[in-house]
Amino acid sequence: MKVALSILTADWIRFADSLKEVINDVDYIHMDIMDGEFVPNISFGPAVVKSLRPVTDKPFDTHLMLLHPQNYIKQFAEAGSQYITFHVEADCDVMETINLIKSFGVKPGISIKPGTPVSAIEKYLPYLDLVLVMSVEPGFGGQKFMPSAIDKAKELKELREKNNYNYLISVDGGINDKTLPAIAEYLDLAVSGSYVCNADNKKERLEILHKM
Questions:
Q1: Is 151 a known active-site residue?
Q2: Which of 32, 35, 61, 129 is catalytic?
Q3: Other CB atoms closer than 10 Å to residue 67's CB: what's the count?
Q4: Which burial class, exposed, middle or buried, applies to 105 when counting CB atoms under 10 A from its CB (0-12, 13-18, 19+)?
Q5: Which CATH number characterizes residue 187's domain?
Q6: Among 90, 91, 89, 87, which residue's Cα sits nearest to residue 108?
Q7: Strands 60-65 and 83-87
Q8: pLDDT per residue as tens digits for the range 136-158
Q9: Could you give the number of structural domains in the chain?
Q10: Is the sign of the CA dihedral 199, 204, 208, 209 positive or negative?
Q11: Domain of 184?
């Protein structure tokens, strides 16, 4: 299992410096992109993602919490994303959006909210490189982990093994030293934000997650 650092709750006043503190200890950088429509909050756009690209060569895992993700694939691909994940609940043609992401040489992912079952994306699984299970309601950092994500991650792993699929299984929301052990065996990638970014010793927190 690898760890992605969600930068949503990072110290934006000294953002680049705080990222450099832990950049060698994370496997991916997770970018939460919010539009104020699909979710209530607004975060940042392609310009910020592009500005961070020179800071690290770690893969960018860009999570589009957008009502119309298809309209922004090109911008985030050109900003340096290796993965672009969008929500199956968004207002878009899912298969067309997957193919659009692939057309820019980027790996496509789909995310599901806590209330959305795995069955809603099952027919798309052969075409995906990543599936992101939300263990909180998207749009806010610092929420508590929802245990329903455990069964979804387990189901995704079983489907992958049964059908020889190739997607990574990721979870985002409330991940820390208390919640990760219950779901770690089903994951390839754990996304953690507040647990790491709000800590005095970020390196120590990342080491704890990696050991799990």
A1: no
A2: 32
A3: 16
A4: exposed
A5: 3.20.20.70
A6: 87
A7: parallel
A8: 988 766 678 999 999 999 999 99
A9: 1
A10: positive
A11: 2-211
**pLDDT tens string 9-37:** 666 666 666 667 777 788 999 999 999 99
Q: In this structure, which long-range contacts are made by residues 95-98, counting pairs with CB atoms below 8 Å and at least 24 apart in sequence?
A: 95/124, 95/127, 96/70, 97/69, 97/70, 97/73, 98/124, 98/127, 98/128
Annotation marks residue 32 as catalytic? yes
Identify the active-site residue in 35, 61, 129, 172.
Answer: 172
Please write the tens of the pLDDT for every residue from 58-110.
999 999 999 999 999 999 999 999 999 999 999 999 999 999 999 999 999 99
SS (H, E, C) the chain: CEEEEECCCCCCCCHHHHHHHHHHHCCEEEEEEEECCCCCCECCCHHHHHHHHHHCCCCEEEEEECCCHHHCHHHHHHCCCCEEEEECCCCCCHHHHHHHHHHCCCEEEEEECCCCCHHHCHHHHHHCCEEEEECCCCCCCCCCCCCHHHHHHHHHHHHHHHHCCCCEEEEECCCCCCCHHHCHHHCCEEEECHHHHCCCCHHHHHHHHHHC
